[in-house]
Specification:
Blueprint lengths: L6 E6 L4 H11 L4 E8 L2 H15 L4 E5 L5 H9 L5 E6 L18 H19 L3 E8 L22 H8 L11 H22 L4 E5 L15 H13 L6 H13 L8 E3 L10 E2 L10 H11 L5
Parallel strand pairs: 1-2, 1-4, 2-3, 4-5, 5-6, 6-7
Antiparallel strand pairs: 7-8
Length: about 300
């Protein structure tokens, strides 16, 4: 059961960057009484917990050791969570050349971290009746393309389950030049479709995909080549195509707390933008609202979960 005196939240990737600031912002809300910090590194999680307690003046944080790139670790972490959670924020994610490598579960690390581990986590909570109200998946404008950053829109011949599965196991690039930016966009696209599928299956809860947008001060660019790291840290903020960390985090917090953000919808910046008001991405990328594509994404994903 969720705590009748207030809300409980679980945040993945919560020891740094956006995830940590989501925890901070939620802790400043008086109706939040418990926050699970799901992190793969226990020492970093302990440090983050101490910092959050000092910043917020509240001792409501619990650590869950969980590597979302490892399904076994996700299931072990899930078993260690006491009771139910009202809100799940699936924030953990990676991008970069190294993320094209395969994990022990037979999927690319970019897909394992951004989507597959979160599927096991969220569906585990649902199966056990332990998700109270809302789940928010961190999306990305890369899922519908960002021309100004030369990130092409993911496109497929049929968007069948077979074709989407080639993204998940990396074979999509077997006869193509590897493109980690495209793989990241494809991953985020499939994740948004899966969330929309769940929204149709569970109309009593909210399932929202929200992009934090172009956000400075995160660790997302750490594995990129030096020129791209410098661009993310200095050039994008200078050009006004990224916003501060707390702004990106607030988008995910809004996904949790704002009931006007509709279940099944992917919210991100307006077309060819990375900042500004949240917009329903299906308004200019209708594929996101196609129920058959949503079904295909779910089927493709579950080929890799036993």
């Amino acid at each position: 059961m969720t705590d009748p005196k207030g809300k409980t939240a679980l945040i993945t990737g919560a020891n740094a960057g956006i995830g940590k600031d989501v925890a901070r912002q939620l802790a400043l809300r008086p109706d939040t009484v418990r926050i699970y910090l799901a992190c793969r590194n226990k020492d970093r999680a302990i440090a983050a917990k101490a910092e959050l307690e000092a910043e917020t003046g509240r001792s409501i944080f619990d650590i869950v050791v969980m590597d979302v790139a490892d399904l076994g670790s996700v299931r072990a972490g899930l078993a260690g969570i006491d009771g139910s959670v009202d809100a799940l924020v699936m924030n953990a994610g990676v991008i970069g050349p190294k993320t094209m490598e395969l994990t022990a579960d037979g999927v690319t690390r970019v897909f394992a971290t951004n989507v597959l581990g979160h599927v096991a986590l969220l569906e585990g909570l649902l199966a056990e009746g332990r998700l109270g109200e809302v789940a928010v998946l961190a999306g990305s404008e890369a899922a519908r393309g960002v021309p100004r950053l030369r990130m092409q829109r993911p496109s497929f011949v049929s968007t069948s389950a077979d074709e989407l599965a080639t993204v998940i196991d990396g074979s999509y690039f077997a006869s193509r030049k590897p493109d980690f930016n495209l793989a990241f966009g494809q991953t985020k696209y499939i994740g948004a479709l899966w969330m929309a599928y769940l929204a149709r299956r569970h109309p009593d809860r909210r399932f929202v995909t929200v992009s934090p947008g172009g956000t400075a001060g995160t660790e997302a660019s750490n594995d990129l080549a030096l020129p791209l790291r410098l661009a993310a840290k200095y050039v994008m903020p200078a050009l006004g195509i990224s916003h501060k960390l707390e702004v990106g985090a607030k988008r995910l917090v809004d996904g949790v707390t704002d009931p006007t953000l509709s279940s099944g919808v992917f919210y991100a910046s307006a077309a060819n933008k990375l900042t500004g008001p949240l917009v329903n991405q299906a308004e200019f990328f209708p594929d996101l609202a196609d129920p058959s594509f949503q079904d295909h994404a779910n089927k493709a994903i579950h080929r890799f979960i036993s």
